[in-house]
Amino acid sequence: MSRALCTVLAALACHVSHAATPATTRSEIDGLLKALQQSGCVFQRNGSWFSATEAKAHMLRKLDYLEDKRGGVPSAEAFIEQAATRSSMTGQAYQVRCGTAPAEPSAQWMTRTLKQVRHPGS
Question: What's this model's pTM, rounded to 2 decimal places?
Answer without folding.
Answer: 0.80
